[in-house]
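Just curious. Invent one:
>
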Amino acid sequence: LFCAGHVAQWTLVHVEVSVLREIKRRRNLQEKEGSQQNSKGGSAEDPPGGLSTVGERVAGKTPGKKGPTDPPSIEDELGLAGAAADDVEADLVRKVCEYEVGGAGLLSWFEPIIVAVVTNPSKFSCPTLQASASLTLAKFMLISSTLCDRYLQLLFTILEKSAHPSIRANMIIAAGDLTFRFPNLIEPWTPHLYARLRDDSPTVRKNTLVVLTHLILNDMVKVKGQISELALCLEDQEQQIADHARLFFHELSKKGNALYNVIPDIISHLSDPQHPTPLEGFGRIMKYILTFIQKDRQCESLVEKLCHRFRAARTERQWHDLAHCLSQLSFTERCVRKLQENLSCYLDKMADREVFAAFTSIINKSKKFTKPDVKSMVEELERKLQEANRKGLEEVENAAASSQQGEGEGQGKQPA
């Protein structure tokens, strides 16, 4: 089985590299000879001897001699000339891989054997056999989109349920190769790739992180909400995985607004009430990620978005997370104005000790501005926050006192 997979892999390489290169070489030579004939006043249809086309050799004709009634060569039929030639040649090679190599060729005889082995791990329990069969299946899928579509569910089943970490580690790399080759087929299965970041095996998690890093940075996978799984890798127990996650976010920050666009989603997923991230871990993750937000316009927009999210927050933990993220941003004068404009979004949360502490730290950092109008705005904002905090604490104390009084009256009443 290993030999079958190796042959399939190198047959694909031969067809897509060597054969395609030879087709291009012949076309370039033919175009060159044709241009030379035209410059000498000759006919492009009568190339000099020694240059033969595939069609001429198949017909058993003398190279370069073409009569008026002779059928056109394969190159002529395909229209291998001009700007569309490369596309036509690539399509020809793709069809060879699809229908010749991955279709009814010799390699197709091994297909049922491979499927029988990987679908019956209890019967074929040898780990080496399972590893060889699963790798061979992945190499066969690389040849043809038909084979890839046919066995895609089987490959992800092996990726998730195989009892051997080495097989799961191999399959995640194979899934990455298939994503580069057939991105439209793999796109619906992207969440299953991210899920392997929570695998029990450090090797599987590391391979998954490496694969997703290459796919995202090369724009083969869209950056979506699942990127919060990559953010959690910053707190992985394996230092090598955590370091690679830091490198990923560092590189992602260089791709325009890619990181800025997903920060709200990262915050939402990490502070999800159903699966909250430990508070200390959340703080370290967001502190690192927010260091890459350096543009004033991005900071300003992020302040406004986070303020609006206070209205949708339903738990105190979500309030704490949003306030912590705001306190980690580099505030400018325009950011302070946004904070002032959206005061109504978060003012009712000032009774919470941690929220008030985070906003107090923002005020202290904002006092460095020297413009009189900005300093007065910061002072006014500080006054309103302190007043809201005082009123909120009074309401909490009054509510607690009323509750205790009600309980006392209830205990004092005796049944008749």
Remarks:
- Residues 372-412 form the longest helix (41 residues).
- The CA atoms of residues 51 and 405 lie 105 Å apart.
- The chain has a mean pLDDT of 80.
- The two ends are 89 Å apart (CA to CA).
